[in-house]
Amino acid sequence: MLPVETVSADDPDDGGGDLSEVIDLSEDGSSTSNETDHEDAASDSLVPYSALDAYLAELRKLTPLSREEEQQAALEYSKTKSPEAAKKLVFGSLWLVVKIARDYERVARNVLDLIQEGNIGLMEAVQNFDPYRGVRFPSYAVWWIRAYIIRYIIANWRLVKIGTTQAQRKLFFNLKKESERLEREGIYPSTKLLADRLNVREGDVIEMSQRLGGPDVSVDAPIQDESDSNLLSVLPSGDESAEEVMAKRELHEALQGAILAFKESLNPKEARIFQGRVLDEERLTLQDLSDELSISKERVRQIENKLRDKLKLFVSNRLGSELKEWLGPAEAD
Q: Both 148 and 176 in a single domain?
């Protein structure tokens, strides 16, 4: 279960706040108490409502649930999974999504996108809410709403995702804020100090600073003005070179020949165990080979282990310097 954020009786999160104040997103922050006159003026105007204004106008018609109504709907959904109870919880908390979305509107191109993601988080909260824990639904839902909004912001901040781990998501929102705080205190925000303050690795701080500091660059953009060369032409390819492909093929063929030669040097019993326990993709069980060869399972295991050791020595002696040349000294050892 997500951590619970306590809500006081006077907090707007408890469902008792003034809805018109919570969802007023007009530039001058003025109240919309004279709603009838406003609607009449809008109908006579040639400029229609924006999508956000239309959404907020519909939202003002909804009434937040009281504590008792909220608890009753939560209990009903928990017991019966009634769509009507879920709808009542969602509609009664849509104002909370708008309130949280406003906290992030400075970093979003469209507040409606944030509200949409927050509404998905709200529906997820309804499905996971436990009304028997003594926590009010808005206090629980706020975590789901905020999580979905933050995930959307990170995913759409740039074409290339810059926050894919928990540490990176923490840095995405806190790195600049912590740097500015240290500078106000007269302290140079070194990467090590920032890493200690934010409880992340120093390498994560460096990587996130580079990601946030540099804009996205198209690989098709010219490197210099009036130049035909672009970034794509100088980036290393992730594909293997022809030399690497040929080296791997030669190594595979050499190993395959060494294994076949090793098998030919074994007696029939050892060859059967080697084939069934080492070479076959679907290995035979110790019991199968025990019954087939009329020996104990422990004896089959001993022979298998002995054959594996002998195979390593055989391949090393047969290929020798060629194996080290293909793999490198460290890998060959």
A: no
Q: Does 14 score more than 90 pLDDT? A: no
For 86, the token pair is 């879920």
Distances (CA, A) of 270 to 259, 275, 279: 14, 8, 12
Do 147 and 170 lie in one domain? The reply is no
Q: Mind listing the pLDDT tens digit for each residue in 125-168? A: 999 999 888 888 989 999 899 888 888 877 776 544 554 555 55
Which own/partner pairs from 212-217 qualify as long-range (CB within 8 Å, at least 24 positions apart)? Answer: 212/162, 212/172, 212/175, 212/176, 216/158, 216/159, 216/160
Residue 42 reports pLDDT greater than 80: no
Q: Which helix (H) or strand (E) holds 310?
A: helix 297-319
186 and 115 within one domain: no
Helices 286-293, 297-319: axis angle to 10 degrees equals 100
Does 39 fall in a domain?
no
The parent domain of residue 65 ranges over 12-33+47-156
Q: Annotate 74-139 with DSSP letters as a single string.
A: HHHHHHH--HHHHHHHHHTTHHHHHHHHHTTGGG-S-HHHHHHHHHHHHHHHHHH--GGGS--HHH
**CB contact at 8 A, 98 and 23:** yes
Q: Which of 125-134, 171-180, 245-254, 263-272 is the least confident region?
A: 171-180
> Do the domain assignments include residue 4?
no
- Say if 38 falls within a structural domain: no
Distance CA 122, CA 135 (A): 16
d(CA 39, CA 57): 9
More confident of the two residues 167 and 115:
115
Domain of residue 305, CATH code: 1.10.10.10
Tell whether 17 and 130 lie within a shared domain: yes
If one counts the domains in the chain, the total is 3
Q: Give the predicted TM-score (pTM) of the model.
A: 0.43
Sequence-distant (≥ 6) Cβ neighbours of residue 5 within 8 angstroms:
139, 142, 143
User: In the chain, pLDDT over 70 holds for what percent of residues?
Assistant: 65
